[in-house]
Design a protein that fits this description.
The protein has about 270 residues and is α/β, with parallel strands linked by helices. Helix content is about 35%, strand content about 25%. The chain has 2 domains: about 180 residues, 3-Layer(aba) Sandwich (Rossmann fold), CATH 3.40.50.300; about 70 residues, no CATH class. It contains 10 helices and 10 strands. The C terminus is likely disordered. The structure holds adenosine-5'-triphosphate. The site of adenosine-5'-triphosphate has 13 residues, from strand 1, strand 2 and helix 1.
Length: about 270
């Protein structure tokens, strides 16, 4: 059977939050995600951009099965995320892993880095202890970390190195998809560039699909093949990254582009591979 070119498909997905005081007469209804549809192709980097509050993180969390949705459907590698049962969650995590913005908060400070990376493998029953140790060392190397990192604690590392640890941990279970929610936003610009290069290299080597959430169009421009622009829970623009950034058709995208210094001429990178 031919596998579909699309690995993630959202169809008319909505998510509403009630906010405001429990005792207020009129709780405020926030349409965080207001009927969005898009597909992500296997092996591509798909960007979700928009200003703060536009619904990017809610979308990412719904794709990951961490946030329920009110209506619509989300299919990830053939799995209906809306119908994930408790027992399916583990299997789902082997397909899709997440990397968050804050590498400080994401790592348990009491665990050694080697144990942090090996934990997912242990939970998923991958290899025995010896094999897991070997794989931890290979992952450290692949993510540009020294091998003695395995025996050290997260606090001994810089922000960029911690994000490398988070990426190694995500890759440990050999997922097909990484959802990266503002993965470089907390880092210095020079460190950002190194992490982006690492992500590009890993994608090439492992054939990964990335969903990349960012408010920074310069970063998105460097990494993403295609993107959607979100505003108030809706998609206002979609298309190949260069087209959207250099020839935006929506006023909102134009405002985002104008607010971002994007180096010229465009320094994009590698042929998209599927
Ligand atoms: N758990 C929640 N309870 C109430 N409102 C929420 C909740 N999560 C998100 N929202 C609201 O939904 C809207 C979209 O939020 P979301 O975090 O998805 O946006 P975002 O584009 O990722 O913003 P940011 O970049 O600041 O994270 C916002 O108005 C937010 O306040």
């Amino acid at each position: 059977m031919m596998s579909s070119p699309d690995i993630i498909t959202l169809n008319n997905v909505r998510r509403t939050f009630r906010s405001g005081h429990t005792f207020s007469w009129r709780p405020r209804i926030v349409k965080a995600v207001d009927g969005i549809s898009f597909s992500v192709r296997r092996g591509e980097t798909f960007g979700i951009v928009g200003e703060s509050g536009s619904g990017k993180s809610t979308t990412a969390r719904m794709i990951c099965g961490l946030e329920r949705f009110d209506s619509g459907s989300i299919i990830v590698d053939g799995i209906d995320v809306g119908r994930l049962r408790r027992g399916d969650r583990l299997k789902f995590r082997k397909i899709l892993q997440l990397v968050f913005q804050d590498p400080y908060a994401a790592l348990n400070p009491h665990w050694k880095v080697g144990d942090l990376i090996a934990e997912g493998m242990r939970v998923h029953g991958i290899g025995d202890r010896r094999e897991r140790r070997k794989r931890v060392l290979a992952l450290l190397d692949q993510c540009g970390l020294p091998s003695d990192a395995a025996n050290r604690y997260p606090f001994e590392f810089s922000g960029g190195q911690r994000q490398r640890i988070c990426i190694a941990r995500a890759l440990a279970v050999e997922p097909r998809i990484l959802v990266l929610d503002e993965p470089v936003s907390a880092l210095d610009v020079s460190i950002q560039a190194q992490i982006l290069i690492l992500l590009q290299t890993l994608q090439r080597e492992l054939g990964l699909t990335y969903v990349f959430i960012s408010h920074n169009l310069a970063v998105v421009e460097q990494l993403c093949d295609r993107l959607i622009v979100m505003k108030s829970g809706r998609i206002v623009e979609t298309g190949p990254t260069e087209e959207v950034i250099h020839y935006p058709s929506h006023e909102y995208t134009r405002t985002l582009v104008e607010a971002t210094p994007i180096p010229e001429p465009s320094r994009r990178r590698r042929p998209a591979h599927v």
